[in-house]
Structure prediction request, 375 residues.
Amino acid sequence: MLNFPNYLDGYFFDLANASAESKVLSTCYIPCVMLHKTLQVQHAKQLKITTSVRIPAGWAMKRMRKRILVTGGAGFLGSHLCGRLVARGDDVLCIDNFFTGAKDNVAKLLAHSNFELMRHDVCMPLYVEVDEIYNLACPASPIHYQYDPVQTTKTSVHGAINMLGLAKRLGAKILQASTSEIYGDPTVHPQTEDYWGHVNPIGPRACYDEGKRCAETLFFDYYRQHRLSIKVARIFNTYGPRMHPNDGRVISNFIMAALRGDPITVYGDGKQTRSFCYVEDLIEGLIRLMETEESLIGPINLGNPNEITVSELAIQIIASAGSRSKITYHPRPIDDPMQRQPDITQAKKLLEWYPTITLEKGLAHTIEYFRDFKE
Ligand SMILES: NC(=O)c1ccc[n+]([C@@H]2O[C@H](COP(=O)([O-])OP(=O)(O)OC[C@H]3O[C@@H](n4cnc5c(N)ncnc54)[C@H](O)[C@@H]3O)[C@@H](O)[C@H]2O)c1
Prediction:
């Protein structure tokens, strides 16, 4: 039996440059894993290969170029993810209905031959050939997801069904961008993955929270029923360049107000806490999770555990932006959580992941990006 070393798994062999003897293996590119399996099944004789066959020195080996679908790829997180995957050399198909995303977010990627952009709504089935799916499509800020709550639930639920169906047909690995909102207004602090949450199922945020919870249910049912390879990431507040400037989220709101010199609106007494993860850190976490072995399915929290009160955040943004804005206080909206902080013990242990970019540095990059939008 041929034994190919593990480190060759996942690589293509460039047979065009192979010796004549080696070409007997195939006339086209064969992934090593498949080759290995073929040889085990068909036995070496059938292919006129003996156990003495070695991978000839000097063979050009390329990292396997994966075909990766990113739904919601023209959004804030999606565009950063597409950028990372394209830079890594993968073939990336970005689909988006541009509800909150923008072509501008991925405009620079269009120059790359390994990037493709398609207008598509995940509520409709999709027939493409890919190896991995990152399912990010869904408006993420309250203003946007409450604009058309029925569509928000459909996007999470129908979108999950369609993408899971696609993954099932292809035998592809699929990652769900879930959210800390599935914990609702938590009674456990910080939130660990085994906490089931405290969600109001009939409130104005339910279209998002319950939609995402149902999507997680679907992922786990596809895993149990169809043995699909799934990964579920529970993403906590993330910020950075390409956030929507008018998405009503706390960081974008505060930065825009600070840059315009407008009053900064803090809801409640400002003592509610949040923790913010810079986008580069988050994307690293998503990619690491996707690349774990099949048995690691999550859910896994990804976020920055460093807590800050909303008032402290406002003060820090005013200082970083060099602004003269004043802070004003308004009543706290319904279902707005008091505390939100991820417990990332699992991510540290299983992904060797933790955020590395400080709030100070992340805010500086984000403020620079937002200066263009202040008018
Ligand atoms: N940014 C965060 O802090 C955060 C936190 C938790 C979870 N998430 C999750 O991460 C994902 C991306 O969030 P984001 O911050 O980049 O938000 P975003 O709004 O910038 O991106 C969402 C993208 O999905 C697209 N989209 C929406 N509905 C669609 C549909 N029906 N079909 C196809 N495309 C559709 C939008 O046009 C947009 O490009 C979302 O699923 C969100 O729930 C984000």
Summary: The radius of gyration is 23 Å. Residues 258 and 323 are 5 Å apart (CA to CA).
